[in-house]
Amino acid sequence: MKKILGLSILLLTYTSVWAQMNPSFYGVKSHYGFIIAHSPELKPISQTNPYGIQLEYSWLKTSDKAWKTCFCYGRSGFSFAYFNYANPDVLGSSYNLIYFVEPYFTYRGPLKFSLRGSIGATYLTEKFDEETNPENLLFSTHFSFYLALSINLNYHINDSYAINLSANYNHISNGGQKQPNKGMNFPTLSIGVDKVINNTPLKRKPKSLRSYDTSFDYYAGAFASLRSSDRDAEASNHLLIGFMGGILKPISGINGLNAGIELWYDYSDREIARQQGINDSAFSSAITAGHHFSIGSFYFLQQFGFYLTRPKNIQGNWLYQRYSFWYSIGSSKRWTIGASLIAYGKVADHMDGRLIYLIN
User: Fold this and answer.
1) Where is the signal peptide (predicted)?
2) Domains of the chain and any CATH numbers
3) 62 contacts 202 by C-beta, under 8 angstroms
């Protein structure tokens, strides 16, 4: 009993000290938006206005060590969001568990401007069914992935409360695990309020902390996914496995440029070629170039990929976009795990998991 009491006192003391040093936020916000019909067949089911509510908890570390991870102040946290797509029979609604990071670009005074990146998992109440729900070409699995990018204005009314206004670009897709998978892109405008615990004025850090390494970093890794062998209907999944390498060039504390090469073999393409009698290889290769944000242990990459080789009878596009999220693990921060989404124009194609090694 004494040990339990002592441990409880220790935990309470640590929590109290941590709370005194770091502000935390309990928030609620409402969403209202619209669905982007990124292909003609989606227009009949995209004429609605999704709405929702989001609950969240976040924290902001103010130490010099935390500030140096991105040369900025920033929040991170978890949220739960409910979205209703205003089409109950076809699209239903979704329940989303989300992790986010939110660096501040301005923080002096009561008004703060920030950018938030979010990633999570979603449960969709309605999905495609050839007989009972053939119109829903957006979702074919109950469980999918959630990605979002938000621009935020936060205004602190006082030390205890803040209001916020956000423009959000939300995306839901199953990553190509099952077809059809057009994916939903739905921008929303949200307004909310935060309860602030232990509000701390954010002060400008000394110039001695602002130096950052501008030398090249190199990366190498592997990625894998499961893809349907029928792009337009339900079918069995097949392995996609690939390798990649490239360079990362910091140009500021959080911004950088990147370039690389990707090679992969897609067994679903091989199956399609076999079924259709096409003399196409399932091997693809591409060079990539783009921009990335580096915030502490997180990397957010936006790249264009230019095919060098591809199964031209199956894949008619020669250019793609890739959006990646990496997280560095371990004490050395050399190993990273992550995921990426490949898209052609406005159409999301598939997601994969990634394991990368960084060479400094």
Assistant:
1) 1-19
2) 25-197 (2.40.160.20), 212-359 (2.40.160)
3) yes
Q: H helices of the chain, where?
A: 2-21, 64-68, 267-276
> CA 157, CA 250: separation in Å to the nearest integer?
37
**How do residues 193-238 score in pLDDT, each as one tens digit?**
999 999 888 888 887 777 667 789 999 999 999 887 664 555 567 8
How far apart are alpha carbons 69 and 103 in whole angstroms? Answer: 11
What span, in angstroms and rounded, lies between the C-alpha atoms of 128 and 133?
A: 5
Which tens digits make up the pLDDT trace of 158-207?
Answer: 999 999 999 999 999 887 667 777 788 899 999 999 999 998 888 888 87
Secondary structure class of 274 (helix, strand, coil): helix
Separation between Cα atoms, residue 93 and residue 85, nearest integer Å? 6
Residues 255-279: tens digit of each pLDDT: 899 999 999 999 989 999 998 998 8
Q: Measure Cα distances from 90 to 136, 142, 173, 345 in Å.
A: 6, 13, 16, 25
Count other Cβ atoms within 10 Å, centred on residue 64: 10
What is the predicted pLDDT for the residue at 207?
Answer: 75
Please give the Cα distance from 302 to 18 (Å, whole number). 35
Question: Cα-Cα-Cα-Cα dihedral of 84, 90, 94, 100, to 10°?
Answer: -90
Is the peptide bond prior to 201 cis by the omega test (within 30 degrees of 0)? no
Cα 152 to the center of its chain, rounded Å: 17
8 A C-beta contact, residue 136 and residue 90: yes
Contacts of 16 (CB under 8 A, 6+ apart): none
